[in-house]
Amino acid sequence: MSKLPRGLASNIFLTVGRRASTWLVMAMIASVALVAVELGISIFLQLFLRVIGLLNQEVQTAALFGSRLFTPAQLAGSLCALALVRSIMIFLVGQSGNISMDTITARLRRIAVWETLLHPAKVSIPASAVNARVGDLAFKSSQFCQAASTLIASIVQTVALFTVMFLTARVETLVALAGLALLGLFVVRLNRITRRVSANVPRELRVLTEGIERVARNTTLVRILRTEKIEHRRLSTAIDAYARHLIHAAYLGNFGGALTPFVGILLIIVIVAASQGIVHTPAITLLSFLYLFVRFVQTISTAVLHFSTCNSTWPSFKDSLDYVATFSIDQVEAAMVENEPLVGRAVEKQASAGGAPPSVEIRSVSYAYPGAHGHVFAGVSADVEKGSQLAIIGPSGCGKSTLLGLVLGLFEPSAGTVRIGGRSPVEFFADPAVRVGYVGAEAFLVAGTIRENLRYGLAVHAEDADLWAALSEAQLRSTVEELPGGLSYAIAEDGSGLSAGQKQRLCLARALLGRPHVLVLDEVSANLDSETEGAIAESLKHLRGKCTTILVSHRAGILKYADHTISLESGTSSNN
After folding, report:
1. What is the pLDDT of residues 32-86, one digit of tens each?
2. Which residues span the domain enclosing 416?
């Protein structure tokens, strides 16, 4: 879909999102509203002190209420109400900022996850780029937005407070605030609760980052097995869970921060009452001015702090703006679609019965990376019969994986054509009736049992007997039989409890279990010993006629029964 050029403001809104923008505006409004509350508190403090006799009657106070008289109880109640409103505004400012930050972070992460798994262009994204976008870049971009919002509000507060102080600066002394240390016990208790809630945050972050890294390393397998939506839903759910825990932890922290000034106002009333009835403190002047002055200094400090934050995080936010600018509005909205939580393991797909292994035709294929000078390889041709084995060999960096990607339809050749079963690779592999098995150089496993790993992405129904048969073909049955629980033996996503070779053979068993029309083995024997490699080669020999096998390897053992070999080192193609 073509993308119309967007202005800076439009792209900022698309990057931040409607929900986060609303919370940022709410934070600014609440910050400015604090100025009116501060002014109200200063006025009512003057009236309160004058009514109870602590402020000389000759001292002029605000005439906002005309000649109406207030009782000390009414003024004290009004001060408590204003203090409560002030605490609500402070809480709203803090909570709005945190919700907007976490919402922006989640939004940028969802865009990166959608691009990795569901982008129509099926672009290949380096794992390092994905990690950067969902990690540091997303977080610092949200920091910039929150800091910029607070900076604008602080500037408005500073100007307003300065104006009010200039017009009302007549009080000369300040009642010392005492007793705030008594809040310490409550704050300590609140912090303990906050720490317990915050303990969930790193766990959810670990689940999220490990899942993203696992998918980013094995994008090819996920696409071939057509489990993009499953993985997208799993990662989206993890992103949302992480954001919820962050918001909950921030809620508790902001509650404590908002409660402290409210209690401080109550303490002022208590201290004034005590000074009148017990110690008979002399009249106090300019209390409201000093109160506003303290707030003025606090606001200046806040503005300076957030200006520094904006300076340090602007590059990350600019990178995020440039990144989001590469997507259309429809694509960003597609990335934001909420899914139902993925409960338990995914339901198995409908059985794909019938079909035959395809032939592979490679006609004068060349490939050059965009912007690069020269081809990775040029003029590669091969005719691979149905149900036979094709081997792609050559040293590291010669383009084996690139040629494999062309055969699988992950990208287009610069010249020449590739046909699978008489169709283009994209058309062939998009056919839901086509069954594909894939094993890469690095084992792709999910957290769960051996049984669940074998059935991951499976397009056909398989009983336990079928699972054992596949394990036998992969030379892993005896190992699984010795594990506690057998097929019910649980492993982590990193395959903890299995050796590198065992993990690789488990992935091979999963590929064979699907009775594939096309079996792709990309450096599958990299972590196998020579004996196991030879045994697997024998198993592959029995697949001749049942599936078309594509082998990419630099080791000769797994290529023992290859019918056709493409050597990218020498640029030759031969029948064996």
Report:
1. 787 777 777 767 766 776 666 655 554 445 544 444 567 777 777 877 888 888 8
2. 360-575
Q: Give the number of other CB atoms < 10 A from CB of residue 327.
A: 20
- Separation between Cα atoms, residue 36 and residue 558, nearest integer Å: 78
Rounded-to-10 torsion of CA 557, 563, 569, 570:
130
Of the ranges 24-38, 187-201, 262-276, 287-301, which one carries the lowest mean pLDDT score?
262-276
> CB–CB of 236/110 below 8 Å?
yes
CA distance 145 to 126: 27
Tokens describing residue 364: 């004068």
Q: What's the pLDDT at 343?
A: 45
The helix (run of H) or strand (run of E) holding residue 530 is helix 530-541
Q: Which of 164, 98, 105, 188 is nearest to 139 (CA)?
A: 105
548 in the same domain as 411: yes
Packed helices 72-118 and 200-217: angle between N→C axes, nearest 10 degrees: 20
Are 92 and 225 in a shared domain?
yes
3-state secondary structure of 400: helix
* Coil/strand/helix, residue 431: coil
Contact partners, residue 372, CB within 8 Å, separation at least 6: none
Count up the domains in the chain and report the number. 2
pLDDT digits (tens, 9 = 90+) for 394-431: 887 788 888 888 898 888 888 999 999 999 998 898 88
Share of the chain above pLDDT 90, in %: 6
Q: Tell me if 1 is assigned to some domain.
A: no
With 0.70 as the threshold, say if the pTM is over it: no
100 in a structural domain: yes
What is the rounded CA–CA span in Å between residue 432 and residue 351? 10
Gap between the Cα atoms of 284 and 279, Å rounded: 14
Q: Cβ of 99: how many Cβ atoms within 10 Å?
A: 23
Q: What radius of gyration, in Å, describes the C-alpha atoms of the chain? A: 34
CA 507, chain centre distance (Å): 27
Contacts of 525 (CB under 8 A, 6+ apart): 504, 532, 533, 536, 553, 555, 557, 558
Same-domain status, 306 and 454: no
